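User: Round two. Same drill as before: sequence, then structure, for each protein.

Assistant: Same drill it is. First protein:
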Amino acid sequence: MVEESVRLSRVFCEKKWPIFAFLDSHHPDIPEHPYPPHCIAGTDEAKLVPALRWLENESNATLKCKDCIDGFLGSIEKDGSNVFVDWVKSNQINQILVVGICTDICVVGFCLLDIVCKKSWFPFSSRKCDRIFLWLCYL
């Protein structure tokens, strides 16, 4: 499934469509209960999979490290702004394709809880997000 994520990412980049990628990145001394330590900041687990690391150099890709399950909450900055909401606004997003690896927690949670439940107040240009496409990749 990584290959399909790479293929879709390349299509998006060729078309200059915006990409937003969450990277799970945790401090070793701050547990994320009930899960065991994972994706510790500075380790390979906290990076994109090798086949997608080229996205780090793509101008249309925004990468956001998050230290919690909830991608929306993980996008809140110290000044109260939200990197994801700002990305949605600046790119005038009205459709979202979500892909991910090991998706049964973070990715599904982001789609179901954050996008679906909160879309009524998301600033999707002048209207709400009208389509959310979810494609799950399991390794």
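Second protein:
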Amino acid sequence: MSSEADLTKLISVEKQRITGDSELMVRLGGLEKALNANQATRDFFKFVSDRPELLAEFDNTDRFKEKLWVSYFKVHGELFAEAVDAHKSSKERRKKILETAAALSGKPSLSCSMNGLMCRSRWCPGTG
């Protein structure tokens, strides 16, 4: 490709190829219908259309989610650190609450692998 005219011609040929392919037109029609299904989808489509660099991110959604979390923690790192500090500082209080609850239930406590606390909750991932 050596000139703007060559590029324009190539674009024209590709557009013609796309519009001449009935199977592709049916697929694009279905895609357009899905994208216009509701206001939220239209808003999302507009958002992505205005930011083509995002399209490459959707190739690996797990990596994209990881990048989003990392950027969130960078922006809100101080709040995250405060939450971690509050959790750590409440360890003894949680331990006493769990011990009191176990004593009041009259049943022996199960040892929880989470923080070495005594836990009876059936929802606790460390109970076992």
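Residues 1-50 form one domain.

User: Perfect.
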